[in-house]
Amino acid sequence: GMGKTSATGVFFRGYLRIVDRVHLVSATIHLDPAYKEMKRLTEEKYKAEGVDIDDPEENPFHEDLKALPTILSGMVERTREAQQNGDKYMPLTLVIIDDLMANNGAGGYQYNNDILRLMSTSRHSGGVCVINTQSYKQLAKAARLQATHLGVWAVQHTQWDEIRSELAGRQGMSKEDLEVAWQTATNKPHGFLWISYNAAPGQKFWSG
How far apart are CA 120 and CA 111, in angstroms? Predict the structure, then answer.
């Protein structure tokens, strides 16, 4: 199985070729070696596609959530332009937010209205959002309900109980099915449980 950073890298590489913009948000964006390759690939993409990475409104690398309003306004503006131009495809923006702790001013998830705005408007403005957190409940429930997928690693059972209780009954998922899926998916050789909320029955649970 793979950890959160490795799984995030898989998503990043999968979406990089089809999105118009990338935003990586992490307190360790300039320190963590795990971001070095993602930053390099983003810089190469922007250079090849003529995006001015030095423009503050186009900067793809952020250390906290204070940049979210600018990110969101850019997403909305590109979507509006595409609609006005009659484009066949709407522009996509990949936003990866990694492990920013709660209750830490502009850096935290909890009670962060910009996170909620990002989650609630992304489907209408081409947002593809990946949010990594050590605690599921750090995200406001209104934001959690906007998610289409969820990855759960081998967290403490008390945390898993909270997640399982919230998901039970949603789109046909039972507590029993969730428990079996989590136990199976978080045991070696697997690493985490991947839940696809909108998938057909029998295809909602995957191991990674």
Answer: 14
What values do phi and psi take at 21, rounded to 5?
-135, 155
Task: Using alpha carbons, list the distances in angstroms from residue 121 to 72, 73, 76.
Answer: 9, 11, 9
Amino acid at 184: T
What does each of the 208 residues of the chain score in pLDDT, given as a tens digit?
568 888 999 999 999 999 999 999 998 899 988 899 999 999 999 999 999 999 999 999 999 999 999 999 999 999 999 999 999 999 999 999 987 654 444 456 666 889 999 999 998 999 999 999 888 888 888 889 999 999 999 988 999 999 999 999 999 999 999 999 999 999 988 889 999 999 998 999 999 8
Q: Do 82 and 90 meet the contact criterion of CB atoms below 8 Å apart? A: yes
Radius of gyration of the chain measured on its C-alpha atoms: 18
Contacts of 198 (CB under 8 A, 6+ apart): 148, 171
**Across-strand partners of 61?**
24
